[in-house]
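Quick start: what a row looks like.
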Amino acid sequence: MAVSRFLAEQGQTVRLGISFEDQNLQLYDPYAIAKVEILAEDDTLLATKTGADIVHNGVGIYYVDWAIPGAADLGKHYDKWYYTPVTGHDEVSAKLEFYVYLAGTFLQTDSYLTVSEAKARCLVGTALSDTDIQYLIRVAMTIIDRCAGQHFLPVSKSLDVDGTGEGYLVLPKALLQLTGLENLDSPSMAFTPADYRMKGTWLFHKDWKTGAVIPAHLACYNGGYFPRGHRNIRVTGIWGLYEACPVDIQHATCLLLRYAGQWDTVYGPIISKYARESVDGWSYALREVFKQATLNRSTGHPAVDVIIQNHRRFDRGMAVI
């Protein structure tokens, strides 16, 4: 079964859809669709779809399926559609984007909202199935994480960091709870997690004595040290800035669920950014969602972006866990 362009993972088949609209915002079938190219972020050609590969799924609605290689590069990709709008016109193209994620990214069970919470708070009386709602929640979470530069639920995992030769470690992310320490160069050298504590919740914090801004670090207070090395210390624990999803992020998720049908069809983005066009008169009117999306990493919905702005983290070294 093919997955949406918003949930594309390595090794899966992704369904890349498009909707064609005329100047009156009515769906229409173009005269011809010559081909669809699948491109890497640097425009390297990965696949070409033609003929029966291009499926007509209703007036103005088309899609192609692409089997993503298991070792596909992560990150931004494109599907470029070559079509002739009406007979006698020149061929034009529309370039849409999608992201390829690491295999297993969307198998996680924790969500900012449960399906029952979504039904009660923002999808009252919906005819959507529970599967569809869970899909929309996952899409909303992905958008919020990408815009904010962080994840809003604690994650249990191990990270390998550089030993400093001193009694502290500099950590790339916030650590809520330490559960294990291991010297990878010398496994027999044991650490006792109870002897260590975090100093600084954020990536940077001020030293209360000197006032200097220093990296957050894991400090030993019994005289021990971490042997110097490259990624030789494995830190296991619960990472993140929040023990539970903040209430305002839950609200932002609700808002995105409400807005889900306002600018996209279930088959993919509408190709035109304009609600009204007049080629001869040079008159254009952007759709509201594109008008609002003027800042980098913006959703285009002001009520959502105001919330995300309060949590945005793009400090050096800080990234989505």
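That is the whole record. The first helix runs from residue 115 to 121. DSSP finds five helices and 18 strands in the chain.
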